[in-house]
Amino acid sequence: MSEITNQSLTSLAQNIKDKKLSSEEVTKAFIERSEKSKELNTYISEDFSNAIDKAKKFDQNPNLNLKLPGIPIAVKDLFCTQNVRTTAGSKILENFIPTYESTVTQNIWDEGAILLGKLNCDEFAMGSSNETSFYGNVQNPIDKGLVPGGSSGGSAAALSGKLTPITIGTDTGGSIRQPASFTGTVGLKPTYGSCSRYGIVAFASSLDQAGPMAQNVKDCALLQEVISTYDKKDSTSIDFKRNEYSKELTKDIKGKKIGIPKEYRVDGMPKEIEELWQKGIQYVKDCGAEIIDISLPNTSYALPTYYIVAPAEASSNLARYDGVKYGFRAKGENLIDMYEKTRSEGFGAEVQRRIMIGTYVLSSGYYDAYYLKAQKVRKLIKNDFDEAYKKVDAILTPSTPSSAFKIGEKKDDPVSMYLNDIFTVPVNLAGLPAISIPAGHDASGYPLGLQIIGKAFKEQEILNIAYAMEDKINFKNNITDWWIK
Amino acid sequence: MSKNKSEYLIERTNNIYEVVIGLEVHAQVTSNSKLFSSSSTKFGAEPNTQVSLVDAAFPGMLPVINEFCVKQAIKTGIGLRAKINKRSVFDRKNYFYADLPQGYQISQFKYPIVGEGTVILDMPDGQKEIGIERLHLEQDAGKSIHDMDPQNTLVDLNRSGVALMEIVSKPDLRTPEEVSTYIKKLRSIMRYLGTCDGNMQEGSLRADVNVSVRLKDSKELGTRCEIKNVNSIKFMQMAIDYEANRQVDLIEDGKIIDQETRLFDTKKNETRSMRSKEDAHDYRYFPDPDLLPLEVSDEFINELKSTIPELPDDKKKRFIEEFKLSAYEATILVSDIEISKYFEEVISKMGKNQDIKLAVNWITGELFAVLNNKNLEITESPISAENLAKLVNLIKNGTISGKIAKTIFELMIDGDRDPQKIVEEKGLKQESDPKALEALIDKIINDNREKAIEYKQGKEKLFGFFVGQAMKASGGKANPQLINEILKKKL
Questions:
Q1: For A143-152, A381-390, B380-389, B469-478, which range has the lowest pLDDT when averaged over its residues?
Q2: Are B95 and B50 within one domain?
Q3: What is the per-residue pLDDT across A64-109, written as a single tens digit (0 to 9) for each?
Q4: Chain A contact present for B284, CB below 8 A
Q5: Is residue B3 part of a domain?
Q6: Are residues B325 and B461 in the same domain?
C-alpha cells in the first residue's frame, strides 16, 4: 500500500471500508504531515486533537456505509464550524467561534468525515493569490515563493501538499478553479443554488458557491455528491434532481459537442496557454467528442461587470462587521468613531477597497450608471451562454491566463490581479457549473488548468468530460516536498 | 370662507392656507414569528431573549421569508381595495446603526407587494375617499435604549426582524380630524382582518406624517416636511397643527420651507429639524441577493380573498339595511370588529320580537360608559352579550321599566349576573296588574282628596304629583304607562 497521504479519497475510503486502514491511522498521517508543513501556512486554525478523538470514536463503531468514512478533511475558513474558530481570513473575526455549522460542512460530517482544521484564504475570499489574508501568505507546494492562487489558496495548497485528502472551497469569481489550476488539482464550481450558502461567510451572495476540490475527478464527483443538497435555510438553494455523481461517472463522451469560444483568446495570453488549449481540444476529440467554434460576444464585459456586482453586494454583506455584536471592536469616542476605527483596523486594504467600490456603485446618482448597467450586462452574458448551449453540451477554455505567479508580484497592482479571473468570472455571473482540471505544465514546470463549463445543473456532464480528459492527459504534479525538512 | 365645520384652514391677515397631509403608517404584522426568522414576536419579553442568529446577523446567516407574513400583507391589501402585485422584490436599505445588526434593513423599495388602493372615511359631513399609494413589507429594527446607563447605549434586539407593513397614503388628507379618522379606519380594517392589532402603546402602529401647506384653492403642492415616528393620534394632530402653522408663518415672512425630516417633541409641543434633504441618508437600495423576487399566483391571492371577513364598510351597509340603524349608529358599531361582534351577538340572543334600537342605545350608552370608566375593551366587558340581550328584552316585554333597568344594570356589572334572576331576587318586577294598581291609586286619591279636586278644577300640573305618588307607593315597580291610564280614568 502506498503512503497514506499519497492516496486519493476513493482509495482511502476503500481501505477504511476494507478495514485495511483505521480512521485513526489516516487522521494521524495527515496530521503528522500537516505538522511538518507549517511553512506552507495553510492552516489558520488546527483542530488536530479533536480530530484524533473523533477518529478513535469512529473506529470504535465504524459506519462503513458512509461516503466519507472516518476521512479527515481540512476546510476553507469561510465555512462556519460549530465551536471551531472561523475567521474568513480577517482580523475582524479573529476570535469568532460560531455556535452553528454550515450546511455544506454538516453534510460532510454526516457522511463520516472528520474536521482537521480551517484553511487559509484571502480575507472574506477577496483575492486571487491568498495574499490578502490577515493570517499571512500561503506557499504553493509547487515551488517556494509561489502563490497558490485564491481565494481558496489554503485549500488548494493543503490539497496539493497532501495535508488533506480532499477539501472544500468557495468560488465567487474563480476562487476554486484558479487555485486548483495553480496547484495542479481538480476544482469544481457547482451551479448557483446547488450547494447551500447557509453558514458560509458571505462575500457576494448572488455569485458565492461552495464546491469540492480534489486530487482527481472521481474524488471531486464523490465530494460534490455529498455537499450538494437542497436547503430550505438558503432561499436561493434550488430543489433539482441531483445525480449520484461518482456512481454515474463515465468516460464515454462520444458525440458530445464541445464549444470553443473565440473570445477567450485574449490579447497577451502566453503561448503556452494557447498550446494547452489546443492540446485539450485534441484530447476531447480523441475521446470522440465534437469540437464546435462558438461565440460568447459579451465576454470582455464580464470582468468589469463582476467588479461592480461583487463589491456592491460585499459592501452590504460586510456591514454587519461593525464591532457591535461580535468580532473585533476598536475603542471609539462614540458609535461612529467606534465604527470607523473598528472597520479601519479590522479590515485589510483589499476588503476596504472593495467596500468603497461597492458603496460607490450603489450610491444615488451612480446606481443606474454602474450597478443597474452591470445587472443588464450580466443578463447579456448569461444570454450568450444560453445561445451557445443551443449548439453545444459544454465549453472548453483555459482556467487562467497564466500559471501561478510569485508572491508579491501582483500585490500592488489590483487590476493585473483582477485579470487573473478573466476566464472564470463569466461562469459565476451566469450561475453555471465549471470544473478546472490540471492539463499540463508551463516552461517552469508549473501546472496549468483547463476549464470545462457546463449547462446549469449539468455537473454530471462536465465531470464526465473531465474524467475522460483526465485519462488522456495523465497529469502528474511535480511536488518535491521542499518545505519538509 | 366656507361654513363647513370640518374644514381646517389657517388664516392670516391676507391669506388663507390649506393643509395637505400624507401618512406613512408602520403597522406591525400580527404573526407568531418574524419576517425572515423563526424567533417569537411576543411583546414585553426580557431584552434579547427573542433573537435568532439571523436576527443578530451572524456570519453566513440567511433570511427565509415567512409565508404567513406575506399572506397578512396581501390580506391587508385586499382590505384596502388595493392592487396586489404578483411579483414584488425585497431590497436592502443600507445604513449603520447599533440596533440594525445587518447594517441594512430588508424592505421593498421599487416593487412593493401591494399597489394603489382606497380607504373610505366617515366624516361628520359625509364620506371621503383617501388614496393608498402602496403597502410594502419590511423588517423592524431593534431598540436602542439611551437612558438606562450613563455611559452606554443598550440594545434590545427582540424587535429586530419583526414584520412591518408600511402603508403609504396619497396626500389626500386635509385636517387633523381626517388623520385621526384615517388612522382609526386603517386600524379597524386591520383588526377585522387580524393582520395588525393596532396597539399604539406597544408600538404596533406608528406613523410618519408628511405635512405641507398651500394657499387655499391652489392646485400645486407645497414643500413638505416629514415628522418622524409619531406614536399616538393625539400627538399626530398636535404635530400637524404645530407644523402647519410653522410653515404658514415661514411663508408669510417670505421665507422658504426646507424639505426636511423633523421630530415632534411631545413635551414642548413643537417639531424640530432632524436632518435636511442634503443630509438625507443615501440608503443605497439594491435587490437583496439572498432573497428571490416574491412571486404569488392568482390562485394564492384568490384563496386569501375567500378568507376575508365582512369588512367595516360592508358591515355598516348591512347594519343600516338589516337593522334599520342610522349611519351614525352603524359607524360606531362597526368601528371595531369586537364591538360589531358584541352587537350582533346581543341581537341574536334577543330572539324574536327584538327592539334593536333599544339594544343599540344600551350598548352605546350605558355599556360604553362602563367600559370607558373602567378603561376596558369590549372583549373584557363585565356584562356578556347574552345578559345584555336579556335585560333589553325585560324592558321590551314590560317586565321592568327603563329606570329599574338602570338599577339592575348596575347590579349586573359585578359578576355578569343574569338580570332575570336579579329581578326575581330583589322583587323588581314591574307591577302591571291593573287591579292591584287601581287599588293603589284609589288609596292615593283618597289620601289626597284636596289635590284631586284642584286637579279637576284645572290644575293639570298636579297629574305629575299623582304619578310620583303612585310610583313611590309601588317602590318604583309600577308600570308607568298603566299608572297614566288609570289615573286619567280615575281623576
A1: B469-478
A2: yes
A3: 999 999 999 999 999 999 999 999 999 999 999 999 999 999 999 9
A4: yes
A5: no
A6: no
B contact test, residue of A80, A90, A192, A325 with most B CBs within 10 A: A325
What does the alpha-carbon distance between residue B244 and residue A28 come to, in Å, rounded to a whole number?
A: 78
Among A230, A235, A343, A366, the strongest candidate for a mutation testing the B interface, having the largest count of B CBs within 10 A, is A235
Q: Taking CB atoms and an 8 Å limit, are B96 and A322 in contact across chains?
A: yes
Q: Is A294 in the B-facing interface, judged by CB distances under 8 Å?
A: no
Strands A72-76 and A114-119, sheet pairing: parallel
Residues B291 and A233: beta-carbon distance below 8 Å: no
Query: Residue B273 and residue B370: Cα distance in Å, rounded?
Result: 43
Contact A359 B92 (CB under 8 A): no
Task: Write the CATH number for B454.
Answer: 1.10.10.410
In degrees, rounded to 5, the angle at the alpha carbon of residue B376 between the alpha carbons of residues B373 and B381 is 105
Chain B residues whose CB is inside 8 A of the A99 CB are 53
- pTM metric for this prediction: 0.91
Residue in the block written with cell 296588574: B433
pLDDT per position as a tens digit, B62-78: 999 999 999 999 999 99
Closest residue, chain B, to A204 (C-alpha)? B289
A324–B155 C-beta distance less than 8 A: yes
B295 to chain A nearest CA, in Å?
13
Answer yes or no: do B157 and B18 share one domain: yes
| Catalytic residue of the set A54, A67, A76, A189 | A76
B114 and B213, same domain (yes or no): yes
Angle formed at CA B58 by CA A195 and CA A106, multiple of 5 degrees: 35
Residues B441 and B422 in one domain: no
Distance from CA of B22 to the nearest CA of A (A): 25
- Run of H or E including A353: helix A349-362
Q: Confirm or reject contact between B299 and chain A (CB < 8 A).
A: no
Angle (nearest 5°) at CA B403 between B399 and B404? 50
- The helix (H) or strand (E) run that includes residue A396 is strand A394-398
pLDDT tens digits for range B410-440: 999 988 999 989 888 877 777 777 787 888 8
The angle subtended at Cα A362 by Cα A359 and Cα A363, nearest 5°, is: 80
- A80 to chain B: closest CA residue: B60
Contact B153 A339 (CB under 8 A): no
Asked if B58 reaches chain A (Cβ–Cβ under 8 Å), the answer is yes
Residues of chain A neighbouring B61 (CB-CB closer than 8 A)? 198-199
Domain with B461 in it: 434-490
Task: Give domain limits for chain A.
Answer: 7-263+273-296+384-473
Asked if residue B324 and residue B229 are part of one domain, the reply reads no
Closest Cα of chain B to A320: distance in Å?
Answer: 5
Question: What was the pLDDT predicted at B2?
Answer: 40
**CB contact (8 A) between residue A235 and residue B94:** no
User: Could you confirm whether A152 is annotated as catalytic?
Assistant: no
The reply to whether B2 falls in a domain is: no
- Between B386 and B398, the higher pLDDT residue: B386
State the CATH class of domain A7-263+273-296+384-473. Answer: alpha beta
DSSP A207-262: T--EEEEESSHHHHHHHHHHH----TTSTT--------TTTS--S--TT-EEEEEG
Residue B355 in domain: yes
Do B422 and B481 fall into the same domain?
no
Q: How far apart (Å, rounded) are the C-alpha atoms in residues B69 and B33?
A: 9
Q: Taking CB atoms and an 8 Å cutoff, what residues of chain B touch A88?
A: 59
What was the pLDDT predicted at B10? 95
User: What pLDDT shows up at residue A202?
Assistant: 98
Residues B126 and B155 in one domain: yes
The predicted pLDDT at position A1 comes to 57
Determine, yes or no, domain membership for B4: no
Number of compact structural domains in chain B: 3
**For residue A190, what pLDDT band results from cuts at 50, 70 and 90?**
very high
Query: Which one of A152, A155, A175, A399 is the catalytic residue?
Result: A175
